[in-house]
Design goal:
about 200 residues; alpha+beta; two-stranded parallel ribbon; globular; CxC2-like cysteine cluster KDZ transposase-associated domain-containing protein
């Protein structure tokens, strides 16, 4: 359930705008990440589902997005649905998400580390190693045990329903997605219970 509304930030120009085609030069108003620009700016992705996954590939929630997923979608989901900010957010463009969130809600995200998963890190050639989960895994036993590709696995599962969703109304698409993800989560829980029982 929603715990708070997403505030407006009138002093931040372009707040809440879709940030598909940001400039790659950080000094020119962009984020300085060429991977972000190449993937989302040039390919012009359209809308879909944004899902939040735990490291066990269980979906914590999802929402429909009208255009390609951007930093505002993730900020809004975290800020409006979490009572307190997560300690770690693993996201394929954490290099851009961290500063975006801290600029808007520094108190809420003060204790949050924004990290790029191992699968996507290789494409972030211009980004600081401080953004990579691999940097922290060397010294943090808790992070060393985390499956940083859980979201990729879960999103791979969502590909199974991509085609039928494209023919549905928004209402039907939400019900269909909810049902699919409820069944997905149940299968994960049953598999985990069997593993513990052995």
């Amino acid at each position: 359930p929603r715990v708070r509304l997403r505030p407006e930030y009138p002093h931040l120009p372009g707040d809440k705008k879709v940030d598909r085609s940001v400039v790659t030069d950080a000094g020119a108003g962009g984020i300085g990440c060429s991977k972000y620009y190449e993937t989302y700016g040039q390919r012009g992705q359209t809308g879909g589902l944004m899902a939040a996954w735990c490291p066990h590939c269980v979906c914590l929630g999802f929402h429909c997005i009208p255009k390609g997923e951007g930093r505002n979608d993730v900020l809004s989901a975290l800020y409006t649905r979490w009572e307190t900010a997560p300690e770690v957010v693993i996201y394929d463009f954490a290099c851009a998400l961290g500063p975006y969130c801290m600029q808007r809600e520094p108190k809420f995200f003060a204790g949050t580390r924004f990290l790029i998963d191992g699968f996507h890190a290789k494409g972030h050639k211009r980004c600081s190693k401080a953004c990579f989960i691999s940097t922290y895994k060397k010294n943090d036993p808790e992070l060393a045990a985390v499956n940083s590709s859980a979201a990729e696995c879960g999103n791979g599962g969502l590909l199974k329903i991509r085609r039928p969703l494209s023919y549905m109304s928004q209402r039907h698409a939400i019900v269909y997605s909810y049902t699919f993800l409820a069944m997905w989560n149940r299968e994960r829980r049953i598999a985990a219970a069997r593993k513990v029982a052995k």
